[in-house]
Design a protein that fits this description.
mainly alpha; two-stranded antiparallel sheet; single chain; 62% helix; binds zinc ion; 2 helices
Length: 120
C-alpha cells in the first residue's frame, strides 16, 4: 500500500514535469495554454493529495505503535493488580497485625484487614 502510494507520487511528479514542458511548448508556439495549465494544476493537486494520504498513513502507524504499547502496559498493570476480597486459599498471616487467619476467610479476625491475593 505504502509502496503503491510512493509510486503514485513519483508518477504525479513526472506528470507535473510533463505538464510544465507542455506549457512551455504551448507558450513558445503561441498555442492554447489552457490544457497544459489544467494538467499542471490537476497534477499538483494530486501530489498534495497523495502526500496527505502518505502523511496520514505514517500517523496511523505511529498510533498503532502507541496502541500496542498501551495494550502491553495495561495488561502489565492488570496482571499486577491484586484481586480484592478473595477468599484465602490457605491459612494467611495478616499484614497489619500479624494474626494467623483461617483458610477461606476474607478478613482478618482481629483487625478486619481484607485478604489480598497477590499471586495470580
Ligand atoms: Zn489483622
Amino acid at each position: 500500500m505504502r509502496t503503491l502510494l510512493r509510486v503514485l507520487l513519483l508518477l504525479q511528479i513526472v506528470s507535473v514535469v510533463v505538464a510544465f514542458c507542455l506549457l512551455m511548448v504551448a507558450m513558445t508556439s503561441k498555442e492554447s495554454v489552457l490544457l497544459p495549465l489544467l494538467l499542471l494544476f490537476v497534477s499538483v493537486l494530486n501530489i498534495a493529495l497523495v502526500y496527505v494520504v502518505l502523511k496520514n498513513a505514517d500517523e496511523v502507524d505511529e498510533l498503532k505503535k502507541d496502541v500496542a504499547k498501551l495494550k502491553r502496559s495495561t495488561f502489565a498493570i492488570f496482571s499486577q493488580t491484586p484481586t480484592l476480597s478473595e477468599n484465602a486459599p490457605t491459612e494467611w498471616e495478616c499484614p497489619k497485625c500479624g494474626t494467623k487467619n483461617r483458610k477461606g476467610t476474607q478478613k482478618c479476625c482481629k483487625c478486619s484487614t481484607r485478604y489480598f491475593s497477590v499471586d495470580q
